[in-house]
Amino acid sequence: MKTPKVSVRHLKKSFGQGEGRVEVLKNINLEIYSGETIALTGKSGSGKSTLLSLLSGLDAPDEGDLFIDGENLSRMPEKELTRFRASRMGIIFQQFHLVSTLSAYENVLLPLELMKHPQAMNRALELLESVGLSHRSQHLPSELSGGECQRVALARALAISPSILFADEPSGNLDEETGGKVMDLLFGMVENTKTTLVLVTHDPDLAKRCSRVVHLEHGSLL
Ligand SMILES: Nc1ncnc2c1ncn2[C@@H]1O[C@H](COP(=O)(O)OP(=O)(O)O)[C@@H](O)[C@H]1O
Ligand SMILES: [Mg+2]
């Protein structure tokens, strides 16, 4: 039988203490297979971003196990986890999170240099070209439009050819037309590279473009 790329077992996460304690994720179980594109849906505040943070190793669960490519991230020492994330995962956020002091080109170059990619500079230029931003390579994020920033973020996330791409409402901060173009680009690149995708979205049309939808409600997946 095929082994899952991601396997989540009894994941739990709460915030706060005592009376104010909120159980956001109560019992999350999920398996994701290589090449799948998963839409993660749910109401605002249902815990989608929290779950994405756990899946991408940005935050740790209170309980449960998370396996990616057969490795248990819940038990991994911090340093190893950082390296695992840098070498296997791409992440895109609603707010872009580019490094404000680096140019578009330098933002894409950064993860490649961290991983000592043998042709980091060429690869960064190629990626900028593939998102249609060769002519903006020397610009700072503050000199780029929202859509351009998100295209840089997409190029950066895919730079290391991640094993899995996580995206948290990547068009949420863009107008409809720009967001649509960014999503077309994202789906196109994911398809070309056969990258496994977990996409948080509240847009049913975007969810339909994924191979599977999982819905978060009352702290569990439906
Ligand atoms: N760091 C945090 N500290 C306290 N509460 C948090 C934190 N992060 C998220 N929450 C709470 O967890 C719930 C789920 O948040 P979130 O995962 O951002 O939901 P969604 O992305 O589905 O809108 C919300 O009630 C939110 O207030
Ligand atoms: Mg969110």
Outline of this structure?
This protein has 222 residues and is of the alpha/beta class. It has helices at 48-55, 78-88, 104-114, 120-130, 146-158, 176-193, 204-208; strands at residues 6-15, 22-32, 37-41, 63-68, 71-72, 89-92, 164-168, 196-200, 212-217, 220-221.
Describe the structure.
- By secondary structure, the chain is α/β, with parallel strands linked by helices.
- The chain has one domain (6-221): Rossmann fold (3-Layer(aba) Sandwich), CATH 3.40.50.
- Helices cover 35% and strands 25% of the residues.
- It contains 7 helices and 10 strands.
- The strands form 2 sheets. The chain has a 6-stranded mixed beta sheet with strand order 6-7-8-3-9-10, with helices on both faces.
- Helix 3 (104-114) packs across helix 4, helix 3 (104-114) runs parallel beside helix 5 and helix 5 (146-158) runs parallel beside helix 6.
- The two termini are 24 Å apart.
- The model has no long low-confidence stretch (mean pLDDT 95).
- Residues 15-16, 22, 24, 42, 44-50 line the site of adenosine-5'-diphosphate.
